Structures are given as C-alpha cells and as structure tokens.
C-alpha cells in the first residue's frame, strides 16, 4: 500500500485518524482551513484549545476531533511567508515533523495534512510543496507510523503543483539510489 498520496478535497470530511489544522499561535481559530475545521468540529474544539495556552510556530499540539469524522486534530501554526530569508522553510518543515511525531507516538494509522501556510500566510505553493514532501518522506523513511499520510489539497491546481513536485522529488531520490 502506498504510504503517501496527494488528493483534492475538503479536509473536514476526512476519515483519517487525525487531520492537521493550519492554525495560528493562539489556537483560537481563524479563517481558511482553521475556520472550516472549527466549524465542523463544533464549539467543543475551541473550548479545548482555550486550555492549551497557544502553540509556537513550527510546533504542534493534539486535540480531539469532536464532531469531525477524524478522531483527532493536530494543531500546528505554520510560518508567515516573509520572502524566504527568515527561516520559513525550517519552520514549515518543523510543522510537518512535529505533527508526524505526535502521530507516531500515538501509533496513528493515518494522518491527513492541508497545505500549511500556503493560504493566508502566503507561502508560495511550489516552495511549500518541496519543503512538505521532503519533510514527510524523510520522516516516513525512518518511522513505521503513521502508516498512511495524505496531502489534501483544496483545489486541483494545488494538487497539480504537489504532484509535479512529487515527481521531481521521486525522480531525484531514484537517481540518488542508482
Ligand atoms: N480543506 C483542505 N484545505 C483547505 C481547506 C479545506 N476545507 N480550506 C482551505 N484549505 C487550504 C488553502 O487552500 C491553503 O492551500 O489550506 C491551505 C492553508 O491555507 P489557510 O487555511 O489560509 O492557512 P495558512 O496559510 O496556514 O494561514 C493560517 O489563517 O485561517 C487562518 O487561523 C489561521 O491565522 C491562521 C492563518
């Protein structure tokens, strides 16, 4: 079974064990996927988030899924794009790694990611896709859990960029093995 895949859809409808929320450091909700997840999860999610004391950019915290199909929501604030010279790539990679570490520690079978930081936070999609795929594939190479990870893109255009980036990464990794 393929451990990683790219799909198009609304992450709030996901049946994965956990979905990741592109949150902000307050963890008190917002627009974009953050707003969609809070609306779908119900007010209990915000009540739980209020007890967490926020979250640093690049870090992640686990919350329940409440009215979502997903059992958990892993909250992670991505970096705001400032041109690429303020450590954005390292912070974005840290978001993916931190979420996967939580999922691995709980031996979750499946985790769905949105494309963190590529909306309100302005991270250019091609650069974000390169960082995301490298972080995910590096983690999966060294860990047995989660068993399945998906990138859930909200649009076909975004998925196309992830697929193009995946093909480039995969070709490079095959070349390295030769
Ligand atoms: N399902 C999947 N992906 C979605 C959904 C959805 N329902 N809604 C939006 N997206 C996609 C966007 O198209 C974008 O590619 O999620 C990606 C991240 O965009 P944002 O939600 O704007 O998140 P981000 O860029 O990380 O900005 C975070 O926005 O919503 C606020 O509180 C949040 O302050 C924080 C900031």
Summarize the structure.
The protein is 43% helix and 17% strand.
Describe it.
The protein has 178 residues and is an alpha/beta fold. The chain has five helices and six strands; from the N terminus they run ββααββαβαβα. It has helices at residues 32-41, 43-50, 88-105, 125-142, 156-177, and strands spanning 4-8, 18-23, 61-64, 72-77, 110-113, 148-153. A six-stranded mixed sheet has the order 1-6-5-2-4-3, sandwiched between helices. The longest helix has 22 residues, at 156-177. The radius of gyration is 15 Å and the shape is globular. The model has no long low-confidence stretch (mean pLDDT 96). Adenosine-5-diphosphoribose binds next to strand 2 and helix 1.
Descriptive tags:
178 residues, alpha/beta, 6-stranded mixed sheet, 5 helices, 6 strands, 43% helix, 17% strand, binds adenosine-5-diphosphoribose
Beta-strand level of the residues, as a percent range? 15-25%
Radius of gyration: 15 Å
Uncertain residue segments: none
Q: Count the DSSP helices.
A: 5
Reported for the largest beta sheet, the result is: 6 strands, mixed
How many β-strands, per DSSP?
A: 6
First-last Cα distance: 24 Å
List the helices and strands and how they pair.
Elements (H helix, E strand, L loop, with lengths): L3 E5 L9 E6 L8 H10 L1 H8 L10 E4 L7 E6 L10 H18 L4 E4 L11 H18 L5 E6 L2 H22 L1
Parallel strand pairs: 1-6, 2-4, 2-5, 5-6
Antiparallel strand pairs: 3-4
Helix pairs in contact: 3-4, 4-5
The structure holds adenosine-5-diphosphoribose.
The site of adenosine-5-diphosphoribose (APR) has 25 residues, from strand 2 and helix 1.
């Amino acid at each position: 079974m393929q451990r990683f895949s790219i799909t198009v859809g609304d992450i709030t409808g996901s049946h994965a064990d956990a979905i990741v929320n592109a949150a902000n450091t307050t963890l008190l909700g917002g627009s974009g996927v953050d707003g969609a997840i809070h609306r779908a999860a119900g007010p209990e999610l915000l009540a739980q988030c209020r007890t967490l004391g926020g979250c640093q950019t690049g870090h992640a915290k686990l919350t329940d899924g409440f009215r979502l199909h997903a059992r958990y929501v892993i909250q992670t604030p991505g970096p705001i794009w400032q041109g690429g010279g303020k450590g954005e790539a390292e912070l974005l990679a840290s978001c993916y790694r931190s979420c996967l570490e939580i999922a691995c520690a709980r031996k979750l079978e499946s985790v769905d990611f949105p494309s963190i930081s590529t909306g309100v936070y302005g991270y250019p999609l091609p650069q974000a896709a390169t960082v995301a795929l490298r972080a995910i594939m590096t983690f999966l190479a060294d860990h047995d859990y989660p068993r399945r990870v998906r990138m859930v893109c909200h649009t076909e255009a975004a998925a196309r960029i992830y697929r193009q980036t995946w093909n480039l990464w995969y070709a490079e990794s095959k070349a390295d093995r030769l």
